[in-house]
């Protein structure tokens, strides 16, 4: 079960994908995930120019020659992004795996697939998964309500969303949201997924660029220590329960406008938190699976642990009593 269409198509050893996380999914993290047998993904928009993305991809290639992916997130912004220039870099650097997220990527599909790339689109609902297949995506990464970041507005958990998506489309499904160990990988495969996408688990690895103070704080949290913000904006975000999140909740309760909340929502705050370890004055995306995480291993050790645990579980499931 660990060797399937997902692994064969992407050229990876294990069906374990490190999700594209803003400011976190850099060359060192992604390359080490790929070197460990999974798929590492570098987040393009963490870099404020296509040239800087090119430099980061070159850094990754000094660590691994195994498949790498790039995340492109299409979101409305006050400062329009020149996506075509980022795609130029992706093509120039011969990246064959693209993780798209946010808005419909249809207008960019032909350019990406013209370079023989495989496209993984992140979705938060079955209807979006159906649309992703229709426009030509090769895989769907389906985000359950447990996930870090943006879980959508339908509040459907992975236990329901994964098999429903697998029943509704013909392309492989990647399970995302709530996965942090081998039990989760085995469960995802049993639910009809071809692999797992993990963000929060990879944040808490040695190669992650997250400041050590923030890593230690995250390690102290449990599954009830996340909170949903931006619900009033129809842009729900799951983040850790901290001072910044509580301030935003209070503003939403009094029907504050986006303009009023914008300074607290700024991604620059999150970047600063990752760099300095200040875990109170920024929205820090974190999934409910934080309650399952109790160590900060190397990427290699973590991937191997997940593989060994899931393999053992799958072997036990094949035992049939007389």
TrEMBL record:
<keyword id="KW-0285">Flavoprotein</keyword>
<keyword id="KW-0223">Dioxygenase</keyword>
<dbReference type="GO" id="GO:0051213">
    <property type="term" value="F:dioxygenase activity"/>
</dbReference>
<dbReference type="InterPro" id="IPR004136">
    <property type="entry name" value="NMO"/>
</dbReference>
<dbReference type="GO" id="GO:0018580">
    <property type="term" value="F:nitronate monooxygenase activity"/>
</dbReference>
<dbReference type="Pfam" id="PF03060">
    <property type="entry name" value="NMO"/>
</dbReference>
<keyword id="KW-0560">Oxidoreductase</keyword>
<keyword id="KW-0288">FMN</keyword>
<dbReference type="InterPro" id="IPR013785">
    <property type="entry name" value="Aldolase_TIM"/>
</dbReference>
<protein>
    <submittedName>
        <fullName>2-nitropropane dioxygenase NPD</fullName>
    </submittedName>
</protein>
């Amino acid at each position: 079960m660990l060797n399937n269409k997902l692994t064969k198509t992407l050229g990876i050893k294990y069906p374990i994908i490190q999700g594209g996380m803003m400011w976190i999914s850099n060359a060192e993290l992604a390359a080490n995930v790929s070197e460990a047998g999974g798929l590492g993904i570098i987040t393009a928009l963490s870099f404020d120019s296509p040239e800087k993305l090119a430099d980061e991809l070159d850094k990754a290639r000094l660590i691994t020659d195994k498949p790498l992916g790039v995340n492109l997130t299409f979101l409305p912004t006050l400062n329009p992004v020149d996506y075509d220039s980022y795609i130029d870099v992706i093509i120039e650097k011969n990246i064959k795996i693209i993780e798209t997220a946010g808005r419909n990527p249809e207008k960019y599909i032909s350019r990406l697939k013209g370079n023989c790339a495989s496209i993984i689109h992140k979705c938060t609902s079955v209807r979006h998964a159906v649309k992703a297949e229709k426009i030509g995506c090769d895989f769907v990464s389906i985000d359950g309500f447990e996930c870090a970041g943006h879980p959508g507005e339908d509040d459907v958990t992975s236990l329901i969303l994964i098999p429903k998506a697998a029943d509704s489309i013909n392309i492989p499904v990647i399970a995302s949201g709530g996965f942090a160990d081998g039990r989760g990988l085995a469960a995802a495969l049993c639910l009809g997924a071809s692999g797992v996408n993990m963000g929060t688990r990879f944040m808490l690895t040695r190669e992650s660029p997250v400041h050590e103070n923030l890593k230690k704080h995250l390690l102290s949290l449990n599954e009830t220590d996340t909170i949903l913000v931006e619900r009033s904006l129809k842009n729900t975000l799951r983040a850790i329960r901290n001072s910044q999140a509580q301030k935003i909740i209070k503003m939403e309760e009094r029907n504050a406008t986006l303009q009023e909340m914008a300074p607290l929502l700024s991604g620059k705050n999150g970047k600063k938190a990752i760099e300095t370890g200040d875990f109170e004055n920024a929205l820090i995306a974190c999934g409910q699976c934080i309650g399952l995480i109790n160590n900060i291993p190397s990427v290699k050790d973590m991937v191997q642990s997940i593989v060994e645990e899931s393999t053992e579980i799958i072997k036990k499931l094949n035992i049939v009593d007389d």
